[in-house]
Amino acid sequence: MVQAVFGFDVGTSSSKGVLASLDGEILAVAQRPHDVQRPRAGHVEMDANVWWRELCDVLAELRQSQPDVEIVAIGVSGMGPCVALADAAGVPVRPAILYGVDTRAMKQVERLTDELGGEDAILQRGGSVLSSQAAGPKFAWVKENEPEVYVQASRFFMPASFLVWNLTGSYTLDHQSASQCTPLYDTEALTWYEPWVQKIAPSIELPELFWAGDVIGTVTSDAAAQTGLPEGIPVVAGTIDAWSEALSVDAHNVGDLMLMYGTTMFFVNTVESVVRSKEMWGTVGALAKTRNVAGGMATSGAITGWLRELFGGADYGELVQEAARSGLGARGLVMLPYFAGERTPILDADARGLIVGLTIDHTRGDLYRAALEATAMGVRHNIEAIEAVGGQIDRIVAVGGGTQGDVWTQIVSDVTGRPQVIPTHTIGAAFGMAWLAACAIKPIEAKDWNPPVRTLEPNPENHERYSKLYELYRSLYPATREQMHTLAAFQQEL
């Protein structure tokens, strides 16, 4: 029997599992696509029970494809910060409210900011100001808008912690995820801040905190019966997917920036000491004694997926080829990628997408190219904001599904003027959790688990041309913000 570890991740558009040897060889990968629910404008939810069903399904497929593999440790991660309220038995009482793409709690953000002493007081304790990304206001939203649901709740989960609960019966959360539950977590004391917990979520029993990779339990007899796994396999604490992705590509050292290409674009920069920012997110890291400056766009791959559907389900490969033929500047189109509001660095849930320069001569390839360039412009904006608040970026490591092929990644390097390290495996968070699970069995250096294979360099001439378009890109949001907000208010009334 070959000893292997199982890593699993719940993403926005799919769940993915990987079996890997203890030396990092990928033995098998399986995936399950899923959809989020958008019951009304600004609301983005998902049934937490889907996460467990998909883990069981993926695991069954992987074990069937690799009958000679013995799974010796398990790690799980997921999108976040999410708020999945549950009763004392861990049964969800409503769909999980997702991370910053769900903007329903903006009134609670404003009210809590005032009640807790203003942005500076929250920033000092939590590392970030309240925004659509913060989990705390979402508790308040449920308490105020669904009181009959809230009274049923006594616990809360994120995808990783919900899966750990189902596997081990341990009610836990990792410190990194907790640090995005602003303002409930104290980033200096590394614990829940009880005065604000009692004000915002007084009836919720908050989970015990661990660091990602800590062994916190083993597979129970009940979980064994549901998954087909032997009882007693160790399970490590998980974390939010972007941080697991950073671990998967050894981008967790001071000066590293993990750039995640996915449904949304995410950034994790590791720094030497605490950074507080009103534009970005100051968090603790996935591993003990680490600190991060992080950020996230509300869309990236979500826009290309939306365009694909508008184009009748066109093949992605064809669209990428057409975008490549469109050329730099998408034949005179500039897009703002705020199709679901925007997270960092503008933190504006009411921002809206914008396409400028359209003519009847433009093609779907031009639009697709404009979407790729828009996300690249957003990447540059975030990189500049990270460095402005004290972040240190010496190396950018790319990860995620969007790294397949060089069109998108080359556009990002050309727009930002920054090289990107491409690792051997870019399959993402599930592989990072496999590494953490393997580390519970024996010490393994991340650089040996997933070494880099090449560096993608920017084209200086393209960077100069893109810099002129970037100036135009940056001017569009302040010039149209008022109109965006008017339309957002109109949409929310529908």
TrEMBL record:
Signal peptide location: none
Any GO BP annotation: D-xylose metabolic process
Superkingdom: Bacteria
CDD domains: ASKHA_NBD_FGGY_RrXK-like
Keyword NADP: no
Domain annotation Carbohydrate kinase FGGY C-terminal: ranges: 258-440
Keywords assigned by UniProt, alphabetized: Carbohydrate metabolism, Kinase, Transferase, Xylose metabolism
Start and end residues of each Carbohydrate kinase FGGY N-terminal domain: 6-246
GO molecular-function terms, A-Z: kinase activity; phosphotransferase activity, alcohol group as acceptor
Family statement: Belongs to the FGGY kinase family.
Protein name: Sugar kinase
Species classification: Bacteria, Bacillati, Actinomycetota, Actinomycetes, Actinomycetales
